[in-house]
Design goal:
By secondary structure, the chain is mainly alpha-helical. Helix content is about 75%, strand content about 0%. It has 9 helices and no strands.
Length: about 230
C-alpha cells in the first residue's frame, strides 16, 4: 500500500515538474508583469496625488496674490501654474481668477492673455466656454467686435449655448446689426427656458432690439372634446 502511494506521489511530482518546465517561465513573467503593473499604478496614483497637492498650494498662492492686488506676483505665480500644472483644473481656475483680478487692476492685455490661455489650453470644456465668454466680453468693451465674435465660434457644451447666443447678440447690437442681434437674443431666450432668472435680462435686450418676448412664447391650442353620443 505504501509503495502504491509512493508511486502516485512520484507520478504527481513528475506531472508537476513537467507542467513547470512547460509553463513555469510564462507564469513567472505573468506574475512579474502583474506585480509591475500594480507597483506602477500605485506609483502613478501617488504622483497624481502629489501633483494635485502642489497645484492646490500654488492655486492658493494665486488666490492670495489676487486678494492683495499684487499684479506682478499674480502674473509670476500664474506663469508657474501654466508651466508646471497646465493640465490640472487648478491651473484653469487660476487663469480665470487671475484674469478677473488683472482686468480690475486695469491690465486688460494681461487679463485677455490669461483668458486666451484658458480658452485654448483648458482640458475641461466648461472652463473653456467660460473663458471664451469672458474674453469676448472684454473684447466687446474694447470695441474689438470681430475678434470677440471669433472667440465665440466653435462648439461649446450645450448648457453654454444660450449664453454664447446672448453674448453674440450684445456684439451685434454694439455694431448696429439689429437683425443679427434679434436672432441671437431669440436663441438665448428660447434656450434658457422659463425657469431661468437670466432669461429676464434677455427679455429686456429683446425689447431693446425691437422684439416682444411674448411673441416668442409657444401658443398652446386646446382641442375641444368631441361631443358624447346621447
Amino acid at each position: 500500500m505504501a509503495t502504491h502511494l509512493d508511486l502516485d506521489e512520484q507520478e504527481q511530482l513528475d506531472q508537476l515538474k513537467h507542467f513547470w518546465n512547460t509553463y513555469g517561465t510564462l507564469i513567472t513573467w505573468v506574475v512579474l508583469l502583474v506585480a509591475g503593473a500594480f507597483v506602477a499604478w500605485n506609483g502613478w496614483q501617488y504622483f497624481q496625488r502629489n501633483k494635485a497637492a502642489q497645484a492646490a498650494a500654488l492655486y492658493d498662492e494665486v488666490e492670495r496674490s489676487t486678494q492683495s492686488g499684487d499684479v506682478e506676483r499674480i502674473q509670476r505665480v500664474l506663469g508657474d501654474m501654466k508651466e508646471r500644472f497646465a493640465g490640472t483644473a487648478y491651473a484653469q481656475q487660476a487663469g480665470l481668477l487671475a484674469a478677473k483680478a488683472l482686468y480690475e487692476k486695469g491690465n486688460a492685455e494681461a487679463s485677455r492673455a490669461a483668458l486666451g490661455w484658458v480658452a485654448q489650453s483648458a482640458v475641461d470644456p466648461g472652463y473653456k466656454a467660460v473663458a471664451k465668454l469672458r474674453l469676448a466680453a472684454e473684447l466687446l468693451d474694447s470695441k474689438s467686435y470681430d475678434e470677440a465674435l471669433k472667440q465665440l465660434s466653435g462648439d461649446v457644451p450645450k448648457e453654454f449655448e444660450p449664453l454664447v447666443a446672448d453674448r453674440k447678440g450684445d456684439i451685434y447690437m454694439a455694431q448696429g446689426k439689429r437683425a443679427e442681434a434679434q436672432a441671437e437674443y431669440r436663441k438665448a431666450w428660447t434656450g434658457l427656458g422659463p425657469a431661468s432668472d437670466y432669461r429676464r435680462l434677455v427679455e429686456f435686450k429683446l425689447n431693446a432690439a425691437g422684439v416682444d418676448p411674448k411673441s416668442l412664447a409657444p401658443v398652446i391650442t386646446v382641442t375641444p372634446a368631441a361631443p358624447k353620443n346621447s
